[in-house]
Amino acid sequence: MTRSIDTYVLADGRTLAYTCSGAPDGVPVVAHHGTPGSRLFAGLLSDAAAAEGVRLIVPDRPGYGRSSPPPSDWTWWDWQDDLTELLDAMSIDRAALLGFSGGGPFAVAAATSEWASRLGLVSSVIPPAETGLATLSKIPLAVRLLFRAASALATAAGPGTIVTQYTDRPVSAPTARAVAEDFHEALRQDTRAVERENRSFATTALDPNRLSAPTHAWHGTRDDNTPLAPVRAFINAAGGSMETTEADHLGTLLDHRADVFRWLGSG
Question: What's the rounded Cα separation, in Å, for the pair 33 and 49?
Answer without folding.
Answer: 15
